[in-house]
Amino acid sequence: MCRKTDRFTTRVDPNLLHKSWCIETHSLGINFQQRNLGDKNILTLYDYGNSVCCQKVRITLCAKEQNWDAVTIDLFKGEQYNPDYLKMNPKGVVPTLVHDGKAITESTLICEYIDSVFPDPPLMPTDPWQCTRAQFWSKLVDEGLFEGVMVISFSAMFRERLKQAPPELLRARFQNVGDPNRRDRMKSTLEDGVDSPFVLRAVYAYEKAFKILEETLGDGGSWIMGDSPTLADIALMPFIARLDWLELLDVWLTERPKCRDWWAMAQEWPSYRRGLADLVTEEEIAEMREHGPKLEGQLNVLRSSLHDGSWNS
Ligand SMILES: N[C@@H](CCC(=O)N[C@@H](CS)C(=O)NCC(=O)O)C(=O)O
Predict the structure, then answer these.
(1) Which residues contact 230 (CB under 8 A, 6 or more apart)?
(2) Kindly report the CA angle at 290 between 167 and 213, in degrees rounded to 5?
(3) What is the best residue among 94, 153, 177, 186 to mutate for testing ligand 1's pocket, by most ligand atoms within 8 Å of CB?
(4) Closest Cα to atom 2, ligand 1: which residue?
């Protein structure tokens, strides 16, 4: 099975992943810099299990059949704000990939890096125009869906978890967020849940993405760019998986058969299973299923308001 490389990390062989795979949590005392500089030719992923951005990277690594060392950064214990970690990832977020002692941040850039360093199988079209069409999907994620999934996840469940956190941890978290827009979103959804004005923006982001996806699919292949999966499909998968587990997918997909077929196929793709589905724990699934459905009625109302124009009156 998987080999423990030291107290803090677990060597992950994408071919061997399954539900019982366990990442040993690390302590905050780790000296990130020292560890990474010595690790030639090893991929180290600073990771958190149910993080959509990490899931993108893990699916990409699995598609390339690469092994990696996983170091868990527990976002609910504030480990992302550890000063040593911030030297690698100044925003204090996951993922960070370290390869040959060099740190790479931003999940979209990490996936593109993996695709260029490990060319087989290619995950982007070679034709420059097709390539920009594929990149459109990660842009859609980075410019809307990512905020959307955060807002919906916070309103549905992270809110419940954070409400139980000690007040000093919560204070420290908000002091550390840095980006004022991100802090406003987190605070608003923590306080007001689905009544936060940011939830309408999330509903809009998903509506736009699914509308374009439905129009794009079937243009000449089952995947977004044709007959085989690319980074365009990978970029979307964690964002759809989260909605599915929250049991909220029907808000957007009842009248979108092509999106449904694409999603059914994506879930069968081995790299999706190994990089995402197999690494979400039973507890995380139970948490999503418990809290997500409570939002459904309100999200349907917000979605209808996008179409009847009442949202901008
Ligand atoms: N644009 C960044 C966003 C990274 C990000 O925000 N990651 C989330 C997890 S998906 C995180 O680390 N959140 C930290 C927090 O909630 O404090 C990327 O794509 O890598």
Answers:
(1) 123, 124, 125, 134, 223, 224
(2) 105
(3) 94
(4) 106
Q: Whose CA is nearest to atom 13 of ligand 1?
A: 93
Structure tokens at 205: 């982001």
How does pLDDT run across 149-202, given as a tens digit for each residue? 999 999 998 888 888 888 888 888 888 888 889 999 999 999 999 999 999 999
The domain spans of the chain are 10-117, 128-312
pLDDT in tens, 2-32: 233 333 344 555 444 332 222 333 333 344 4
How many angstroms does the Cα of residue 53 sit away from the middle of ligand 1? Answer: 6
Is the CATH number 3.30.2130.10 carried by domain 10-117? no
Please, what CATH class does the domain formed by 128-312 belong to?
mainly alpha
Q: What are phi and psi of 67, to 5 degrees?
A: -85, 155
CB 45 within 8 A of CB 54: yes
- pTM value is 0.88
DSSP state of 66: -
